[in-house]
């Protein structure tokens, strides 16, 4: 982000995120500025320049790599040339604080001299234009950022989650007959299967999503058949399912080992039909 020095000095930090500074509530990972060198200082480990652009001053620090610290002069090394008082330079650095004052940490090669006397004027005009048209405008993040954040914070989907969703759906249809398409067509069942697919196969192509979703739901139906929760009914080429009467009763609340209350479905003795002699 291109800023004048007084804007850099006015940046604020996020209280909950130390080391992250913002300008108009926008996080600023890197700053670019220009100014005249007022002071040059070298210690064994780093260079220090004090820049002045007419709006304020700021200290810029360049850390010398360990293998070059014993050299008397680093002018022959690209990116570590020293500049003199009075030169106009362009600097790109990471904002930070030292002794409660803002400073820029400049990586080697991120400082360069300006030979055109108009460069500083053009830079100021560009900063003022961006301040009006971009920096002060409300930033809108793409929807995908929120979707990814929601997916990252959501509890991981498992097959047990899908089974629980199907059990909820079946409990409302006790004794009724339904087809596979009734199960898949339900929004809740479809969403639970899609969540499990994204958990297992994050890069799955949409073309294959329906086929994989069908496999997942079929696997769960087989498990429910083994639990005697549903039965399969075939009439010619048509296959339907029926929720067995009494397959579920109301939830009970139980306390787990960690002390938290959990709910579960209790299976009862299966009765196929009230009129069945078997």
UniProtKB/TrEMBL annotation:
Signal sequence residues: none
What Gene Ontology cellular-component terms does the record carry? Answer: chromosome, telomeric region; nucleus
| MF GO annotations | DNA binding
Key words of the record = Chromosome, DNA-binding, Nucleus, Telomere
Q: InterPro entries in the record, alphabetically?
A: NA-bd_OB-fold, NA-bd_OB_tRNA, RFA2-like
Its name, as the record gives it, is: CST complex subunit STN1
According to the entry, every stretch annotated as the OB domain falls at 33-106
Main localization of the protein described in the UniProt heading? nucleus
Where is this chain's protein located in or outside the cell?
Chromosome, Telomere; Nucleus
